[in-house]
Design goal:
Number of strands: 3
Radius of gyration: 27 Å
CATH superfamily of one domain: Trypsin Inhibitor V, subunit A
Largest sheet: 3 strands, mixed
Number of helices: 2
Distance between the termini: 57 Å
Structural class: alpha+beta
CATH class of one domain: Alpha Beta
CATH topology of one domain: Trypsin Inhibitor V, Chain A
Strand order of the largest sheet: 1-2-3
CATH architecture of one domain: 2-Layer Sandwich
């Protein structure tokens, strides 16, 4: 038991000797995130939000019937909907009072 305590004390004192208090350099700190261009292009191909952008400002009755309904979600602005994210799904949100499409996004 005494040997274990000595080893633990030695490890703790070595950990305290780390060189963490160096002055930060100009390039220290988190690097800004750059979008992954390949994955961004892939998302654009998976979701047809770009093709349906013309719907914004139009009545929700003009939303075309989806070929694959599992890849499109149409909801009103006050409706509850799950917050799961699917890059291949197109979300079409319309105003519940006016019936006009407010946004067309992927996710």
């Amino acid at each position: 038991m005494r040997r274990f305590l000595l080893i633990a004390l030695a490890a703790a004192s070595l950990a305290a000797c780390r060189d963490d208090d160096k002055a930060p350099t100009a390039d220290a700190g988190p690097k800004p995130l750059m979008p992954n261009i390949a994955s961004t292009a892939q998302v654009k191909e998976q979701c047809d939000a770009h093709d349906l952008a013309w719907l914004v400002g139009k009545p929700h009755t003009q939303i075309p019937v989806a070929v694959d309904p599992s890849r499109r979600r149409v909801a009103c602005s006050t409706c509850q909907m799950p917050e799961d994210y699917r890059p291949d799904r197109t979300n079409i949100i319309f105003d519940s009072q006016t019936g006009l499409v407010m946004s067309v996004t992927c996710g």
